[in-house]
Amino acid sequence: MGNDVSRGVRDGNPKNYRRSGGGWWPAPPTAMKILSWNVRGLGNSRTFLALQKILQQQRPLILFVCETKLTAKQMYETSRKLKIDNCLAVNRNGKGGGLAMLWYNEANVHVTSYSNHHIDARVQREDGSWMRCTGIYGHPEMSQKHHTWILLKRLADLFDIPWLCFGDFNEILHPNEKLGGNDRNVNMISEFREALCECNLIDLGCKGYPFTWSNGRFGQHFVEERLDRFLCNKKWREKYVDCAVVNLETWTSDHCPIIMEVQAKGSALSYARKRTSRIHYEDAWSSYEGCKDIVDKEWRRHGNWKCADPVWLFKQTTKSSMAQLKNWSNAEFKGRQQKLEKLTAKLKELRHNGVNIVTGRKLRELKVRSRTSCLTKKFIGSRGLGQIG
Q1: pLDDT by position in tens, the chain (length 389)
Q2: pTM over 0.85
């Protein structure tokens, strides 16, 4: 694998790609959800925080990201910061590209192959059966698109098990999946459809906003397309419930994240984990004087450490400090969370009402307010409130 891939090791078995380390762990997933997103660069803080928030709200078990624009080593460090147990990352190509598949320990994932345009893995379910998950990043250049279809056909011949294929295919399946601009090349659309037919893959559709990519322009230059999707084969549809893919809202990438929940027919939700109400210390608190004052006050208040059992005293002081920090955090950050939710709802309303097509002024204003007011390094967001509220 050379320098193209970063991975961890679990119990001496390199197939499991486990990362070790301490720190805060997000609330665990309640079902097997899979998230796919062309992040258009994961090195900037806005996109990282947006992804972090999506993980906290949607709680996917498996995540595929493309166009990370990171080296494998940088992506591995990013997965550590996201507190995701496992990661396989493919190096960026020059200043672009870069892929990664990340997953929590609840998923038994075995990566079977990868390239600059795909990561293919087998996932073992609780009943011992296997399904296949393949993340795809299609060639964006028109002259190279046929290589994506060749890749799909080769992958289709490898395993005869339920198959879920997802990602940014950089092509549409139907003319109505594009709004604005010049018409798509009909031959390119036909080649995509023919490739899926040969691979016995079908589109799973979507809910939410119908397009997943926008060129970010307005008026007569405005263009939107549905480039990101989930596909499956016949065996997958026979075994799993047809849960609609959801196109999520975001303002940090020109692509929307897409997410799907996987559930076997006739069974309860898989991979359920019990949520706890434990209070966790947030690293972001450390930069606030209010946090420092609380910690200093509580540790001074508990008296002389030489005259008491240090273990008991440590527990009491920590418990008292966290109780005070809980109240402080709710007061400090709750208003920011509510503000972000209102701005996001307004962005969604404007987008669905077609404001993009006519004028971008209101949309731009709301995006700037969302970025500057809420997605800052010091913004705790739903993670902190969800854990301590």
Answers
A1: 444 555 543 333 333 343 434 443 444 444 689 999 999 999 988 899 889 989 988 999 999 999 999 999 999 999 999 999 999 999 999 989 999 999 999 999 999 999 999 999 999 988 889 999 999 999 999 999 999 999 999 999 999 999 999 999 999 999 999 998 888 899 999 999 999 999 999 999 998 889 999 887 777 788 999 999 999 999 999 999 878 899 998 778 889 999 999 988 876 544 444 444 556 677 667 777 888 888 888 777 766 666 667 777 777 788 888 888 888 777 776 666 666 666 666 666 666 665 554 555 555 555 555 555 444 444 444 333 333 22
A2: no
Residue 161 CB contacts under 8 Å (≥ 6 apart), including other chains = 122, 130, 131, 132, 235
Q: What does CATH list as the number for 5-262?
A: 3.60.10.10
- What residue spans define the domains of the chain? 5-262, 283-388
Name 262's bridge partners: 32
Minimal CA–CA distance to 86: which of 65, 114, 66, 106? 106
Burial of 328: CB neighbours in 10 Å, binned 0-12, 13-18, 19+: middle
Q: Is the distance from CB of 324 to CB of 281 less than 8 angstroms?
A: no
Count of beta carbons in the 10 Å neighbourhood of residue 366: 19
C-alpha dihedral over 75, 79, 80, 84, to 10 degrees? -160
- CA distance to 85, 369, 383, per residue, from 342 (Å): 32, 11, 17
